[in-house]
Design a protein that fits this description.
Radius of gyration: 21 Å
Shape: globular
Largest sheet: 7 strands, mixed
Order of helices and strands: HEHHHEHEHEHEHEHEHEHHHEHEEEH
Low-confidence stretches: none
Strand content: 5-15%
Structural class: alpha/beta
Number of helices: 15
Mean pLDDT: 95
């Protein structure tokens, strides 16, 4: 049977692609007598919250129940309280918060549930920052929209300049994804940036899907958020949907706990889609997640660990051409001549795994240039001594 054409042009996903590039070779001499340094995957390796095991154990009998599609009230209330403390935004958690089985579920479902089949009689467009989290593009394609790749480069502050797009594209736009802090560049959208994007969305009547999964990993002021900017602007509550996760905030990618928050109609549409096509998080995990959203001590300890690694990266790599200290998140977005060649050399000579930048990007829709070409992404997620070994290997390869 013929495969669907809508997915025919998708490249292989980044990590199988990386395995095909690297795993035909053993880790190089510098890593031969030590565990290879994993800097390719954004999988935090800091300690989990110390009370997690006890919180899960208290609710083991609830594995015998189907979890509610809308989420446990305890978790909804905990998330609503966290949003109020973090962003100063008051919302009704029972109608405006939707717990997710991993934030990728919501980022994908948002386009399917909320982007209409056409706009002004034409095929819809969904705007994507470029480079980007790869599920954005598949979500747009699944929703029957045209993914439009808007380059986010040093010239634009590593955030996409959506306002510079042709009017014909903006008139067809139904949604725009924006990741802040940005993966992979670590750039943070300011209050002014959010206000400008919300005003643009109001003028052209499209939604904003704000991927804020890295919002609690930062080195300076706390990154502003889209919900607060929308409230300040008096925007339609349905204009913005935000997405957060415990994966980065609390070092729990395996718990698969995230949430979407936005207008009641948007949340109702996401709930309805999942009731047919998805699975909510098990109740013990939901109730444990509620305790984790209420605790900030472990989050502050987590940021302190990243602060050590930020300083280490600045010290070791700071004088490399094009090096930009990340404002937030835990990735370095480094200039190289050839991303695959640099990744291969780091693996074969030093046992260090990084990701070629082009695995996270596409040729831009405006001019065909690929902002990931000539870049590598390195994640600062491991223990400090291992990150230092990886950074020194990067210095040796890139700094000559």
């Amino acid at each position: 049977m013929q495969s669907p054409e809508r997915f025919a042009n998708l490249p292989e996903y980044a990590f199988p692609r990386l395995r095909a590039l690297l795993d035909v070779y053993p880790p190089g001499p510098a890593g031969a007598n030590a565990e290879p340094v994993a800097m390719s995957l954004g999988e935090p390796r800091h300690p989990a919250p110390p009370f997690l095991a006890e919180a899960l154990a208290r609710h083991v009998p609830l594995y015998g129940k189907y979890p509610p599609n809308e989420g446990a009230p305890e978790l909804l209330e905990a998330i609503g309280g966290w949003i109020g403390r973090r962003y100063g935004v008051s919302l009704d958690p029972m109608r405006q918060v939707f717990p997710l089985n991993g934030t990728r579920e919501g980022l994908f479902a948002a386009a399917v549930a909320l982007s209409p089949e056409e706009k002004q009689g034409k095929k819809p467009v969904i705007l994507l920052p470029n480079p980007f989290y790869q599920c954005y593009a598949v979500a747009a394609i699944t929703a029957g929209a045209e993914p439009y790749y808007v380059n986010a480069t040093a010239e634009s502050g590593h955030l996409p300049d959506f306002a510079a797009l042709p009017a014909e594209i903006l008139e067809r736009t139904t949604a725009a994804y924006l990741c802040s802090p940005a993966n992979p560049q670590g750039a943070v959208a300011s209050d002014e940036y959010w206000a400008g994007l919300i005003a643009l969305a109001d003028r052209h009547d499209f939604m904003i899907f704000a991927d804020e999964c890295y919002a609690e990993v930062y080195r300076g002021p706390a990154p502003p958020g889209a919900l607060a900017a929308a409230a300040q602007a008096g925007a339609d509550p349905e204009r913005v949907v935000v997405f957060h996760s415990l994966s980065k905030r609390s070092n729990l990618p395996g718990l698969r706990s995230g949430f979407a928050a936005g207008g009641p109609k948007a949340v109702a549409a996401l709930r309805q889609l999942r009731s047919y096509a998805g699975a909510p998080l098990p109740l013990p995990a939901q109730l444990a997640a509620a305790e984790i959203w209420r605790d900030e001590a472990h989050v502050e300890a987590n940021r302190a660990l990243y602060a050590v690694k930020y300083e280490m990266a600045d010290r070791i790599l700071g004088d490399l051409p094009g090096y930009v200290p990340p404002a937030a998140g835990f990735f370095l977005w480094l200039e190289v001549e050839d991303g695959e060649a640099a990744a291969l050399r780091l693996w074969r000579e030093h046992g260090v795994r990084v990701l070629p930048g082009a695995y996270l990007s596409r040729p831009g829709s405006l001019d065909g240039t690929d902002p990931g070409a000539g870049r590598i992404r390195a994640a600062l997620v491991d223990e400090p001594e291992r990150v230092e070994r990886g950074l020194r290997a990067i210095r040796a390869v890139l700094g000559g």
